[in-house]
Structures are given as structure tokens and as C-alpha cells.
Amino acid sequence: xxxxxxxxxxxxxxxxxxxxxxxxxxxxxxxxxxxxxxxxxxxxxxxxxxxxxxxxxxxxxxxxxxxxxxxxxxxxxxxxxxxxxxxxxxxxxxxxxxxxxxxxxxxxxxxxxxxxxxxxxxxxxxxxxxxxxxxxxxxxxxxxxxxxxx
Length: 150
Prior knowledge:
By secondary structure, the chain is mostly beta strands.
């Protein structure tokens, strides 16, 4: 049986130009979408068979949820960090926004095969998200992969 790759946390490299503007390394993708999670959002899980998602928060805060081996893992993302969460195919994932402000995020999508509608069918969470645990979670330092500038 083929092993499913795990989620990665990427830290984009920052370049500051003389005007004080920060640029971050780019991610190649087939499509990039901008989305919003209103306060209180608890999304159903999704599993994409043929795409990898690269998610980054650009405004507000969000907790990215991964279902792995029957347990939820929580990854807090916010506008202050340069973290991108890489979600390979076949990993159940969702976003939740337990905060008081809307979160705006980017998803750079890499398609491994042509798109099919089945890619976006929600899966109802098998058990409730643990908001207390989600709110106290931190990005595990040992899982951060540093990206170099393009």
C-alpha cells in the first residue's frame, strides 16, 4: 500500500526592498483562489484526490484542521506569519475560524490530473472539532520547512 504524504508547514523567505516593502517567495500553481472565512466558520472536511493545496492567511486568523490516523491536528495560521500549509492529495482537511474577525486566505492549487467535481464533495467530520485544543495549538517547529527565494 502506497504511503500518503504528510502535511508540510512551509515558511516563505522574505525579501525587503529599500522602500520597506516585503516580498515573499512565490508558489507555482495551476490556479490561485482567494477565500474568506467569516467569524465562527467550521467547515466540513474535504479530501482532494488529485490536487495539492498551499494555504496562506493574508488577513486575520484561521485554524487549519487535518484528520490523520483518527485524530485532528490543528495548525494556527495568521497574517503575521509567513507560513503556508501544504496539503497533499488524500488528506482530509478543513478550515475553522473561531475568532471575531473574517479571515482572508490564498490557496495556490496544484492539479495532478484534470479537475473533476468529485474533488469538492464535503465529508462531514466524524466527530466535533475540539475548539479549546484548536485555540491552544501552535505550529510544530520541527515540521517547518524553509523556502528559499525564487
